Amino acid sequence: MTTFWPWLSIAALGAFHGINPAMGWLFAVALGLHRQDRRIVWLSLAPIAAGHAVSAALTLAVVVTFGAALEPHSFRLVAALLILSVAAYGALYGHRHRVRVGMRASMAGLGLWSFLMATSHGAGLMLLPAVLSLCVADSPGDLAIAGSLPVALAAVAVHGAAMLAVVAAVALAVFEWLGLAALRSAWINFDRLWTLALGATGIVLLVQ
Amino acid sequence: MATWRPDPSFYPSPRMAAKAPKETLAYVAAFDPERKRPDAIAVVDVDPASPSYSQIVGQVDMPNVGDELHHFGWNACSSCLCPNAPHPHVERRYLVVPGLRSSRLHIIDTKPDPRNPKIVRVIEPSEIAEKANYSRLHTTHCGPEGIYINALADRDGKAPGGIFLLDHQSFDVLGQWEMDRGPQKLAYDFWWHLGHDTLITSEWGTPDTFENGLVPEVLLGSKYGRRLHFWDLHKRKHLQEIDFGEEHQLVFELRPAHDPTKAYGFVGCVISLKDLSASIWTWYRDGDRWAVKKVIEIPAEPADPDLLPPVLKGFSAVAPLVTDIDLSMDDRFLYVSCWGTGDMIQYDVSDPFAPKETGRVRIGGIVSRASHPKAKNGALNGGPQMVEISRDGKRVYFTNSLYGAIDPQFYPEGIDGWMVKLDVADGGGITFDENFFVDWPKGHRPHQVRLEGGDCSSDSYCYP
């Protein structure tokens, strides 16, 4: 049962990322409206989920690879500082960035967009405490890279699946029933929640 | 500064924006043509139920003299809801007010008291020159990468003019926007089709050809701007240039369709060298290129040379001088200011290639000097110029001054400022609101009007 909570939190973070309009469902809905085609909404979900999952996988792969070279305590310290600085940067300068993909986005462009959004917001970093606790549970006291990568990839799969399910559900609900007027009141400040979540992630790593 | 909910004045689509509440205040740029006293942003009460309706109820003076306030805009607008770069929790709160002559930029806070705005930051021309290499600041738009401001010249007052970016929270100058400007040199207006990832710019001239008034030799030599430039909005790269030809001079105000799925818009050409007519052109997507078509031609009116300023005497005609246009939120009505003849014309442009005139009023004008029911002086000068439409399309506001150095070329006795309002009938047709006439205080002339909460040239949208 000790490994149940990390998996649940990985899935819950997928849902949290998926429900954020800035992570893709809104783009899918917009493209469907622009091209007046419901299928575009569905087709857009694939590159959005793929870009997000690839970003999380790459982030975890890099972190776990570097982590193998450090002793666990200093690794946690470094990872926590990295996460806290991403959170601080996002809070201060998150609005200041190039916009590389617009409303004429191709499916590949959409995948790139999703990858950049997830990477720059530190989506994969948010999974780190849960993934680390799984890796440690797998091989106690040691962050063996051989054992960590499959666990990390499984985590990405669970995270990505949860994200895709939520993105699809919200995109469908907004496109088919709710309409965009709901954005005006229902779009709470996810940037702020995201910063809080990243900050909490960093602190959990520090004290874990 | 960030909020928990999106700013209530942001609307996903123009259809929703058209249902926005009525504006109660208008902000109007006012400048001193003598450059002796500070320019100002005036606050005009436009709430018919208010006892101070049609009066200036507040004013914020600039800290210097000689800025020549001209166009201005908001720090944030509905484009903050765009799905590719969403920042919906910024407030629409600050007016971004450039000085066209001084190149100084003022950030003005309209909260907490919208009738008593305050300057919160002044960005000096030297900072803009250093960070963006531009001067002579003109139009501002809020957009996907922050606040976009265009400039008519580089820091030395030469070509090329272009666009630079301002951070929409800190108001720091971020730098030049263009990455590949291709053949573009002159600048005037800019706007975009967010749905088509395309930015469009138009052309006037370099400051030496307008800061002391229009130069007849430059005009007759067709050396003022006559081109449109189309850019990739995200790659910041010049894609295409369209030359209107030697006959057409001064291609000015750009009004793309608000509906982001539509790939067309309207631009006014001030004057034809052939017959002094003015024209409206539609740009549109033609296969994988952009194209233009002249859709309206407004002829010059024959006139007694004794009534004409020196610049027009030899022609015995008043040029219409279309200096501003504006498109209603539903993309149905185009308003065309004829600063020379004094006409404000409303066209139904439901079919953008076949406009139909649906309304016309006359006020001021070089020869006509038409009056207004509420004007004390029976002969108004200046003519319809900067025009702004309420988001619901039912009210239209405009002022009468063009540019300090050009005003006396066409109105040699000077211009006495005024601001008026039209009421729009449902199916088209325009009439003056007889209770709305702002007899502008002497010493200042009014220019662009911005309406509280947004108007038809302040916001762009990502959703149809």
Short key terms for the protein model shown above:
heterodimer; A: 208 residues; mainly alpha; 77% helix; 0% strand; globular; B: 464 residues; mainly beta; 5 helices; 30 strands; 40% strand
Question: Please, could you describe this protein's structure?
Answer:
The complex is a heterodimer of chains A (208) and B (464). With 208 residues, chain A is mainly α. Chain A has one domain. In chain A, 77% of the residues lie in helices and 0% in strands. Chain A is globular. Helix content of chain B is 5%, strand content 40%. In chain B, the strands form eight sheets. In chain B, strands 3-2-1-30 form a four-stranded antiparallel β-sheet, with no helix packed on it. Chain B has a four-stranded antiparallel β-sheet with strand order 4-5-6-7. In chain B, strand 9 and strand 10 form a beta hairpin. Chain B starts with 13 loop residues before the first helix and ends in a 13-residue tail after the last strand. The interface between A and B is medium-sized, with 31 and 39 residues.
Concise synopsis of the structure shown:
By secondary structure, chain A is mostly helical.
Lay out the secondary structure:
The complex is a heterodimer of chains A (208) and B (464).
Chain A lengths: L3 H16 L5 H10 L3 H32 L2 H22 L13 H14 L7 H11 L6 H34 L4 H4 L3 H18 L1
Chain B lengths: L13 H4 L7 E7 L8 E6 L10 E6 L11 E2 L19 E5 L6 E5 L8 E6 L1 H8 L1 E10 L2 E9 L7 E5 L6 E4 L13 E4 L4 E4 L14 H5 L6 E6 L4 E7 L4 E9 L7 E9 L5 E9 L2 E10 L2 E2 L7 H4 L3 E2 L3 E6 L5 E6 L4 E6 L7 E7 L24 E3 L5 E5 L7 H4 L7 E7 L5 E10 L5 E7 L13
Antiparallel strand pairs in B: 1-2, 1-30, 2-3, 4-5, 5-6, 6-7, 8-9, 9-10, 10-11, 12-13, 13-14, 14-15, 16-17, 17-18, 18-19, 20-21, 22-23, 23-24, 24-25, 26-27, 27-28, 28-29
